[in-house]
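call fold(seq) -> tokens
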Amino acid sequence: MIHYIFLIPLLPLIGFLINGIGWRTIPKNMGGIIGCGAILGSFIVSLGVFFEVNTPGFHTQIIPLFDFIKSGKLNIPFEFQIDALSSLFLLIITGVGFLIHVYSTSYMHHDEGMVKYFSFLNLFVFFMLLLVLGANYLILFIGWEGVGLCSYLLIGFWFKNRDYTNAAKKAFIMNRIGDLGFLVGMLMILYTFGTLSYQDFFKNLHDAPKLPASTYNWIAICLFIGATGKSAQIPLYTWLPDAMAGPTPVSALIHAATMVTAGIYMIARSCALYELAPLVSNIVAAIGLATAIIAATIALKQYDIKKVLAYSTVSQLGFMFLALGIGAYSTAVFHVMTHAFFKALLFLGSGSVIHAMGGEQDLRKMGGLGKKMPITKITFLIGCLAISGIPGFAGFFSKDEILSRAFASNPTSPYLFVMGIGAAMMTSFYMFRLYYLTFTGSFRGTHEQEHHLHESPFAITLPLIILAVLSIVGGYVGLPGVISEHHALESFLSTAITNRSKFHLEESTEWILMTVSTLAAVFMIVYAYTATKKPNFAPTTGLAKMMENKWYVDEIYNAIIVKPLQSISGLLDTWADKKGIDGIVNGVGKTVKWGGDRMRVLQTGQVGFYIFIMVIGMIALFSISFLLVK
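ret:
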């Protein structure tokens, strides 16, 4: 099946071309079939590749396609790398992506641009597949930029709304900041090691004479800057909550299966580099933990159902970066996988709610929806239990593994574990606050909204059911050490990425950590119930108001970055552009015109005057020639 690997990105690309070229003439149902069929085909091939990679004795394979850049000693082929890491991401992207496509056939059915929407969705998946399949950083970067472009197209899909287009521009521009860092890091790799190939680069890291630590640190920090933009970490995280402007299935695709996981993938792929840059790894862990906590505090006071989930994604990504920073690379990938299941479920569940509410997203106008939407309620509850880390659900295994390995990384000073527990407790509270405000109690919306409440169509509920099942069983590939000595996922990934250490914990210690984590989550679930039983939507003050207003980070950025740049732009526009460049250009034109106006008086129409001027000119020429010869 590996020989057909080219079909995995090719099928979505074909789907994009067909729907993109014929979006005005192709019927909506046919556009949905083409879009879904392309991703289903990619998933089937990805499944075959995964099983082949999972056979005993499999080694990493490089599949060359064609020469891409070849000049002198520089040779960057267009080739794919197939190993455990890329095969797992292929399944996540195409599997969850297919369910989102199926969901979209119903959710977007009444939109006049549905076929164009599916073409963009297929293009998004194509670039993400290219990102994880590439055998070198340049192919990864092409996919990296491609998903950035598609995020702009899909976040601003309803472009007639100015706020949506502003959100799309914000996502695009903030990602360009991070991408500049990634590009500089790539150029440093090429300059220092003469290659962008993963295998050659990692081999050179191992075999080459030891370079100054600053070399590894600078390359690692540049790549991490790229990851902070793409995976929404401090300080480049504010674009992701605004990305909710796009259709809800797009939010699910960005937050669960594609774009935001790219930074995790890139650092996990580059684990050999980060092992040589412990200082940068500590920065990664610190930024990840800070992001997890700050985003969680903001989510506590949001009332837009999608905004709560958006900040939840930012927070969960912080957990993943914490795992990367402490060297638990396979654990970070484990949480990427489980998070893809339950976060896609939660976003699609919120879309089902919004669909039933006629587009309403304010939690204060919901309540009691569980009576009318039992499937959505049950599946959403499963997603909430999974993300909260309740035992038996997927999130428990991956989240607790991050926390236990954070503790094991420094058991004498367990501040990473304690702060991680704090972020996890806030996760349980804001997710069940959202659940209770949406599905329990009495309805707080209008009579017309209540009259139209209904369960969503089968094309929406089927993906919810499948994702709910995955949100339960998806974590059993990584059982904790106290239950099983064999960690199936870690063993599978060991051929592609390795953890910095074995993170050994005593069995009793691990049981204590899991118990503490579970009790903390359960306590916050109960607390959320009591806090929402008689909800109080009065205006907030003090600290609560700061959290509701997202710590005023956007306002701070606007004050210290946007407005000064606008002022500088205004000055440059006035003095450099209009009075400088335009002044010179217009001045030349005015000078020529002035000279022409003066020369025009010589055109008298009298032959005698012309002869006189000609004689004067000849005398002047002869005089100049005589002087030059002399």
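Residues 559-629 form one domain.
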